[in-house]
Prior knowledge:
Elements: H1 4-18, E1 20-26, E2 48-57, H2 74-77, E3 80-84, E4 96-99, E5 102-112, E6 120-126
Antiparallel strand pairs: 1-2, 1-4, 2-3, 3-6, 4-5, 5-6
Amino acid sequence: MIDYNAIAISAREKIRAYGREVTLIQIPSAAADPDRPWSAPDNTAEPITEVVSVVAVPPGGTSSFGLEVNKDDFLSKAKAVYITHPTQSDPINYHLLRDGTKEYKIEFVERLQPGPVELLYFIGVVG
């Protein structure tokens, strides 16, 4: 039987050792005031951020993980794919990725979970 916990620990250690840190950003969405729907919502809330360790690869570099590039697929439109281990919160909840001074829009998030344990996340960015 495969020990997925050992694989997850090994993946996390290698990403932290050989990768770099980026910031995931979740833009809070505020609903309009139901008593004044014509008024714009108040978007003064601070974005939620989480710093994670990643390894960046070109979109074609993910084929060894079973992610294939199709013409109409999100992967074909991605500028880069960031591979990370499971984080405190699900990366699918984030909208932007800040790598150094550049911010990218998160286009897709794929989870590699061949068994009961989440192993990796693939975050595709554009822009």
